[in-house]
Amino acid sequence: MQDMVLQTVAKLLIPFIQLYGMYVIFHGHISPGGGFAGGAIVASSYILYALAHDVGAGFKQFPRLVAKWLESLGGLIFLLVGLVGIIRGVQFLTNIPEWLGQVGSIFSAGIIPLLTVAIGMKVCSTIVTLFYNLMEEDHD
Amino acid sequence: MRAALTTVVLVLIGLILLFMVAEMPTFGEMGPAYNEVAHHYTQCAVDETGATNVISAIILDWRAYDTLGEATVLFAGIAAVLAILAAHGQRKKGR
Question: What is the pTM of this model?
């Protein structure tokens, strides 16, 4: 479906949706939200783009290769951050006390922001891939 | 025969569920789930993790291993969907 009103509104809205999603992801440890919610918000902007244009245009913005890398990188970052705990001699996925920082600032809470970003990447890639592939299936 | 078997199995499951309900703590009573862990989570979140969002502190610090499992579920789910859809697409192209 090609509708100029829808495409223009989508073009105006998408930057703000993505900015808000990034905000929710990066402030996951100090305000409500987190990786799952933020990743879903960022993914919704890509879904809106694919709905306003078509799946082919959506795949140009979010290629399968990018989805593959985001999906794998999210899981790998999670595992590597967990392995840091084992290298330090404590349990898997234990927080790093030296990195706790000042409560309330963005660079605080040790491994929690890293894990939030990893989850955000993974959730965003999963939702977008799922939606695009199902929509493509519907098209042809 | 099949209907009788289904009825017997359903009655058995129902009995098990009824026994579980009978064992539940009464309304207002502090059940076994309300123990010192909940107090620890609400009172030590900021001191131990540095995160003011207590939900993040729980799912990504104390129970991060559980969240790793959730991430694995996401990965397995999308892998299964892509495997099924790709097989379907190939059959379509081969026709």
Answer: 0.78
